[in-house]
Amino acid sequence: MSDPPLRGDQPLAPANRADAARQRAVRGGQYATRRARVWLAPGMGVKRWLALFMVCTLIGAVGFLHFTWTGPLHFVATRWILYLNALTEPGLVPLHVTGMAVMGLALIGAFFSIAMLNRSILRGTGTVPGTAMDLIYERRNLSRGARIVAVGGGTGLSNLLSGLRPHTAHTTAIVTVSDDGGSSGRLRESLDMIAPGDLTDCYAALSDSPVMARLLLHRFSRGDGIEGHTFGNLMLATLSEEEGGLAEAMKDIHEVLRIRGQVFPATTAPATLVAHLEDGGVIRGESQFAASVGHARIRQVSLDPPNLPALPPVLDAIRDAEQIVLGPGSLFTSIIPALLVPEIAHAVRHAAAPLIYVASLMTEPGETDGLSLEDHVRAITRHLGRMPDCVLVNNASLPPEVIERYAAAGAHLLDLNGASRDLLACAVVLPLLQPGQARHDPVALAQALLTQAPRRLQH
């Protein structure tokens, strides 16, 4: 008859207790090894100070020995040496070996005391020591990341930023702020401010605070006057009112939200997006573009008023960038509007950094009906005055049901079929899709920008 199974409240058998102890010891050893490896990783700024501490300690020990041996404490040094010599059997261990052992123990004690002091200070500030180590390691690595400027708006830009966030702390988002629908449109109309919606999404994507990122995107489903607004939109509206405009509140926003990088509006002045159609018609207001299904194609877009200012940090970021990325996002309502700010267009046009366009996956009803991928590139070139140096194109297949669903709404897949030799020469074709969705995968897109695109541009 077999023994009954142990209940959860019964003590472990001796063998089980021994196994558990061994497992704990192994896990503890692995954690300690990992911590040591992280602390000694290149670029942490630890090894140099550790070496300096050891050198200074040894010099101090030699200096103290010189002082005691040649000064009034000579008798103390003599007694100490005789005492150490008496601890070992005469002739078994040389006296200098005993001294080295004592010196090693003293160094170990010094390191231990520094570690405990560091732990006490961190706990006193509410920081877990292990978390602080990971944070330092992460910040050191991120500080060496690529300087990337991303231009656009909508969910496409925020997805890109969330993919870049683990790789670099030098991302700068330049966000289109001409939206006039939904929560953004209501706040624009009532407060005469720029549209905050896309800014909110980008702040959430780059925030180092998971709680703040979640709160920024919270949309109120009830409440007189706030229903339909997101917390982030209301916060930006509050800061705009408090500071006399978002331009003055940028520094506070980055500090409060713990932004990893920078997020700036393309301009801090409210503007209306205007579409000029091929048949001579005009559509005013971004929210009206989708309603133009069945009308003539959009030939060009402009901002009213046209001569809008750009923030100086935006122009500095473009000048210092290692990559300038357009999109992903809607061609005429997310990407091009930011390039219509004269100072931004001039800075991008003359920037030394390569210009990379993340190609849209589908056409958009009422905005890019009937346009090919080549037409998208031509529209950017026409409005900006510079052709992209690289075009990232997805080659992952979409499920048939997804294609059918988009086709029913009037959207069609964009690919390189019929592309010119110039476009094929600058295209980088990679699988960039989220599984089962017509949306770019943030991780795959970030990896493509950081590895594949620069490699292709070098050729």
TrEMBL record:
The chain crosses the membrane at residues 49-71, 91-117. Pfam families: CofD. The keyword Transmembrane helix applies. Keywords: Cytoplasm, Membrane, Transmembrane, Transmembrane helix. The keyword Chaperone does not apply. Residues 1-26 are annotated as: Disordered. It is found in: Cytoplasm. Belongs to the gluconeogenesis factor family. PANTHER family: GLUCONEOGENESIS FACTOR-RELATED (PTHR30135:SF3), UNCHARACTERIZED PROTEIN YVCK-RELATED (PTHR30135). Required for morphogenesis under gluconeogenic growth conditions. This is Putative gluconeogenesis factor.
